[in-house]
């Protein structure tokens, strides 16, 4: 946890408040989050619905996927739920799911479909289901508690591939707009914040409670350190005066963080949002 908190140190002097999410904390701090999942008897996909609090990064370098999943779970958790089929009741903490089929869209195929003339697009891009088995979830996979939907989603992404950020063994650097496309089949875009006026950026972040939104924060002192330049989900903002407070979810520590927009804005280098529903 100490190493994870170091990621937020540049923000602490700027009035950032880390808001712990108690149910996300591993029971045994000497064991990785997902190793605990594997060792538990209970393994439902989610409790009532997927939540950002279920997400804690482990060994994969997929902050881009985790940020997108947290943003989607924050705005439209039902869009994650419909990706899972052959699943019985998952509303109870004891409704275990041993295997499931997870639907995802292939990024390369999505791009081909998107480039078609409108009269040839038909009912939308095609998707594919992948079988995910709980016993195959190893300590590499992400998870903050016994709810394993995020690990199942990672496994389905690895099976699908079709993007440079996904390898046969896991993940490398990527961007959340690709993950949002693969989870929803809908358009999402990546923007360079350096080309966005301050007022326009605040306007975009204000939509985060109803539109999946992610930001990549890069402070000047960390420009050459990829480990410190991670994607975060924007959960909501609270207007106050001209701007206000931005609440983000950080998958590295499975916690919500609050910071004033005027302190945060210089650190935002890129942002992603799903198109309007």
From TrEMBL:
Record keywords, A-Z: Signal
Signal peptide: 1-24
GO biological process: proteolysis
A single GO molecular function term of this UniProt record: calcium-dependent cysteine-type endopeptidase activity
Protein name: Calpain catalytic domain-containing protein
Source organism per UniProt: Kwoniella pini CBS 10737
Statement: the UniProt record of this protein carries the keyword Transmembrane helix: no
Family matches, as InterPro entries: Papain-like_cys_pep_sf
Keyword Signal: yes
